[in-house]
From TrEMBL:
InterPro entries: BON_dom, Lipoprotein_DolP. Pfam families: BON. It comes from Aromatoleum bremense. Gene3D superfamilies: 3.30.1340.30. Residues 40-108 form the BON domain. The keyword Signal applies. It comes from the Bacteria. Keywords: Signal. This is BON domain-containing protein. PANTHER family: BON DOMAIN-CONTAINING PROTEIN.
């Protein structure tokens, strides 16, 4: 079982690597996107998390969700490509979601 600390470390490392590969302006845009979301974004984030948790096929996964203006980003680690695709479909089915960026990685158990 993957611990929360491991997931947090993977997400942090991925974010740092992603920022390094971009221009300072793009990194600044990403940093501003990490600012605290407004109430609507928090509600959308909560609804997407609930949709993922409610799916029995995704209950043993570790997926982080962020939302801004109807755009949802999924990040984390799953064990199959089917889980990755299912998470994206579930997120798209949530009312208010306009677009899903799927940054979920598939790794062997």
């Amino acid at each position: 079982m993957i611990r929360r600390q491991t997931v947090a470390s993977v997400l942090t490392t991925t974010a740092i690597a992603f920022c390094i590969a971009h221009t300072p302006a793009q990194a600044a845009d990403m940093a501003s996107a990490a600012a605290p979301p407004d109430e609507r974004d928090r509600g959308l984030q909560r609804d997407v998390k609930n949709a993922l948790v409610a799916d029995p096929a995704l209950q043993q996964t570790h997926i982080a969700v962020s939302a801004e203006g109807g755009q949802v980003t999924l990040a984390g680690v799953v064990t199959t490509a089917a889980q990755r695709e299912r998470a994206q479909r579930n997120a798209m089915a949530v009312r208010g979601v306009r677009q899903v960026e799927n940054a979920i990685e598939v790794t062997e158990p």
